[in-house]
Amino acid sequence: MRIEISFPSSHMFLGVPDAVIQEVGSELPFTQTELDELSTSVIEACTNAIEHGNGLREDVLTRVDLDFTSERFQVTVWDNGSGFEFEVRDISTMPPDLMQERGRGLYMMNTFCDEIDFLRDNGSFGVRLTKIPKDPEVAGDDD
Amino acid sequence: MKIKERQNDGVTILEVSGKIMGGPDAELFNSTLKTLVHQGQARVVVDLGKVTWVNSTGLGILISGYTTLKRNDGEMKLLNVSERIESIFMVTKLHSVFETYKDEAEAVQSFATD
Q1: Contact residues, chain B, for A50 at CB < 8 Å
Q2: Which one is the CATH code of B2-113: 3.40.50.300, 3.20.19.10, 3.40.30.10, 3.30.750.24?
Q3: How confident is the model at residue B69 (pLDDT cuts 50, 70, 90)?
Q4: What ipTM does this complex have?
Q5: A-contacting residues in B 30-69 (Cβ below 8 Å)
Q6: Is the pLDDT score of A9 beyond 60?
Q7: Mean per-residue pLDDT, A105-114
Q8: Which chain A residues have a beta carbon less than 8 Å from that of B96?
Q9: Do the chains contact at B92 and A107, CB–CB below 8 Å?
Q10: CA B111 from chain center: how many Å?
Q11: B27 touching A (Cβ < 8 Å)
């Protein structure tokens, strides 16, 4: 199943995809921790999209596609930017300076999600995040 | 993000609510801390009990605040960190930087023993 949402590229609306993921995810066999990890990752992707891809322009929409089944929850965040050189960027390790104020977002996405893919389509740049439930037989809260 | 400020035994408690995510949040948090430093109140407990989530930019705001207070012979400690935010601290190794507490009295008392 798919839900598509679009919102103005402003910090004000970063909570919207989080709310949708929490609502939809509550009907799927994910633990709360898994949903929070996916939500946190999507918020990171949306933050990059609104800031870097769409330049914090409220007249430009950031698009989020949510594709989900009981076996996986996949969220793709699209912006109008040129993206970055993901082919050469290492996102599997922490930034070297623990106290640096920025630069953790990609690492967080990569750590919290089971899969992360970067896409280019018709002038848009996309980040696709996938979460797979560890125990698809279980639904609801942790422990 | 909204911030309520109060005092407890010489320590400033900042009750933060909403999300910590960058944009105007950075200015609000930083200006609040700068005012406290200017007033000589550099011992701060940030209560995150009503914070729904933090993104990586929000982490930067907390780090900036921590650094500002340290530079002014003060300290910033955290209270009521949710599991969601705690997991972010673990993954980013910031749990080794921020002291966190579940009890306000204990957080306040910790300044006396520092």
Answers
A1: none
A2: 3.30.750.24
A3: very high
A4: 0.90
A5: 52-53, 55-57, 59-61, 63-64, 67
A6: yes
A7: 94
A8: 98
A9: yes
A10: 14
A11: no
Q: CA-CA distance, A19 to A17, in Å (whole number)?
A: 5
Q: Report residue A53 as tokens.
A: 């891809």
The 10s digit of each residue's pLDDT in A113-133 is: 999 999 999 999 999 999 999
Q: Least CA distance to A142: which residue of chain B? A: B83
Q: Token digits for A6?
A: 């679009």
Residue A96, pLDDT score: 77
Predicted pLDDT at B109 = 96
Domains, chain A, with CATH or none = 2-82+106-131 (3.30.565.10)
Q: Are B3 and B31 within 8 A, CB to CB?
A: no
Q: pTM score, two decimals?
A: 0.92
CB contact under 8 A, A108 and B92: yes
Size of interface A-B (CB pairs under 8 A): 69
Asked if A96 reaches chain B (Cβ–Cβ under 8 Å), the answer is no
DSSP string across A97-135:
-TT-SS--HHHHHHHHSSEEEEEEETTEEEEEEEE--S-
Q: Does B90 touch chain A (CB under 8 A)?
A: no
